[in-house]
């Protein structure tokens, strides 16, 4: 049985003059110990998916329908008391900015000890021992000294390592990492992602990595969901999606990677922008930006169908494949 099973999840936001849909029929499974990436541009619904799994959608947002089954419990329809036994304990979340996550007026030790004591019957001394052990696990030097320091006394990379240590404090079964290296220097980003991968593998922890960077996803995850305008438009094994993307949006994301462009050339980009939630076009939401658009794309939402090793939501995927084969034969 899957550790996490999301079915037909719909999240809406009640605005002053209308209700908009942020997630529209999201469904996926995550196995124990599996690492999955969720990718897409800003506004695709990636972070909302992470928050919805933990039922952390704040008003005016709300889960309108669907199920989030975690180890037999539906997190979308359960009490706040039951959710408190899950959040931070069995499911941990790593947010984008560690300075927002860490409390600036409490020492690192206070924050780690309080987290442990909120979920475990531990003395302060025992909680501090566990905190020191977790700091060592994420390669924090002089961990006993770090417990006495405040977040502003540490570098960005050190703070993010501490966030990871806090996420691992209670030995969770699942970590949701929402753009965990956004605020960090490029050289530090690689170290943090390598550390996160190592810890998930050594502790058999499932991972949902939310990011816009397909390069990171290719190195970190086994399976990938590509999202656009609140929908999953392609899903499958990461290697299959990276090597042979089927949806024109996924193809555009890969072509836009810097390594796909020769030195001195302009970076490739997908024309247009992600639509606002209040102005999602009818039919396929990607149709205004897609070179393969036909009349059906403007009126009918495509369903996810299996094409080889992946599932893709595109009316014209067969025609695209024929065009690609023709181009390759001509070349």
UniProtKB/TrEMBL annotation:
Keywords: ATP-binding, Cell membrane, Membrane, Nucleotide-binding, Transport. It is found in: Cell inner membrane. SUPFAM superfamilies: P-loop containing nucleoside triphosphate hydrolases. It comes from the Bacteria. The keyword Transferase does not apply. PROSITE patterns: ABC_TRANSPORTER_1 (PS00211), ABC_TRANSPORTER_2 (PS50893). Coiled coil: none annotated. GO terms for molecular function: ATP binding; ATP hydrolysis activity. GO terms for biological process: peptide transport; transmembrane transport. InterPro entries: AAA+_ATPase, ABC_Ni/Peptide_Import, ABC_transporter-like_ATP-bd, ABC_transporter-like_CS, Oligopep_ABC_C, P-loop_NTPase. Residues 4-254 form the ABC transporter domain. GO terms for cellular component: plasma membrane. It is a peripheral membrane protein. Belongs to the ABC transporter superfamily. This is Peptide/nickel transport system ATP-binding protein.
